Amino acid sequence: MLYAEENVKSNIRNREGKRVFYLQSGDTLTPSARDYLSREKIEILPASLAKPSEYLLLNGGFFREKPETYTHLRGNILVPKTHPVIAFRGKIDTLEAELLLAQLAAPETFRQPIGEVLALTRKLIRWDVLEEPAAADTLCGLTQDEQRIRSHRPQEFYGQPHFMPEYTDGAALLQLNRARCAAREAELAAVHAFSDRDGNPTRTDLLTVLNRISSMLYILMIRMKAGK
To answer: Residue 8 and residue 16: Cα distance in Å, rounded?
Structure first.
């Protein structure tokens, strides 16, 4: 397999507190991917080192071999596939799929901003797995405050009031709406996955980014409806 830079970014792993990239024998890296790993000081290790001698469980137990009904939470820690964090990651997969379909259906002028939302979405799993802080200073050229006011007052900024989608709005706008719904589902899954026993959120950074994604998709729907 040939790993491009984006493929590499989504496959970074954490080993003993350091970011690493496992490369299978026979696989190769593009020059930009190799430059990225070098620039970020991410060590390239043979894939044979990726399999631990034992897999740890959250309850203090361990497995010698990985059961099919378990998957990786992070590192060599396994959880059942029903774990809320795994459900959240599945919702992110769905959101990515819906965004790709939205990008395919959209007019040319909308493909770049949808692609920017997609690129931000693809960072969420890495921020979760590596426990890195999530952030998005601007999205499609808008700060968080600018995005909030535009989504609340679309008539003022785009000449288009809030609306309920209809089938007559066309496939491109309806697919954007599907992606927006998927973003809301992912946000709800994140609230469930990243809360303490008292219900307080433990990853407000991830929740903020997901809220911005759904809000931006609504703004794009407004713009498309208004013909802007």
So the answer is: 19
